Amino acid sequence: MAFDKDNIIDQLKDASISDLNDLVKSIEDEFGVSAAAPVAAAGAAGGDEGTKDSYDVELTESGDQKVKAIKAVREITGLGLKDAKGLVDGVPSTIKEGVSEDEANKIKETLEAVGGVVTLK
């Protein structure tokens, strides 16, 4: 089956972020793949076996209490409603970067309390 590659690219250029997010999720579900960038190689290349000084907090699943997750993200980041909703709807999303281990664990605990799944990187 042939498809018009140029037509598809033109449609993608005109699509909203929300539509593109839905498309990516549908493709991931349909084909059992993930659009997340692999990070294992970057970690292995560092060669530092000691403890980390800073962490990135990533919300990988928003859970079934989406409104509470949006409120928690707003409190954590200080973002407005629209931006916080965008992070929650667009999981996986980095909520905060370069935070201490204690702060990262507090953020993780807060988001997990409202049903979110969090990864510390």
From TrEMBL:
One of its GO terms (cellular component) is cytosolic large ribosomal subunit. Residues 55-121 form the Large ribosomal subunit protein bL12 C-terminal domain. The keyword DNA repair does not apply. The keyword Transmembrane does not apply. Pfam families: Ribosomal_L12, Ribosomal_L12_N. GO terms for biological process: translation. Residues 5-47 form the Large ribosomal subunit protein bL12 oligomerization domain. Keywords: Ribonucleoprotein, Ribosomal protein. One of its GO terms (molecular function) is mRNA binding. Homodimer. Part of the ribosomal stalk of the 50S ribosomal subunit. Forms a multimeric L10(L12)X complex, where L10 forms an elongated spine to which 2 to 4 L12 dimers bind in a sequential fashion. Binds GTP-bound translation factors. Belongs to the bacterial ribosomal protein bL12 family. Forms part of the ribosomal stalk which helps the ribosome interact with GTP-bound translation factors. Is thus essential for accurate translation. NCBIfam families: L12. HAMAP family: Ribosomal_bL12 (MF_00368). This is Large ribosomal subunit protein bL12.
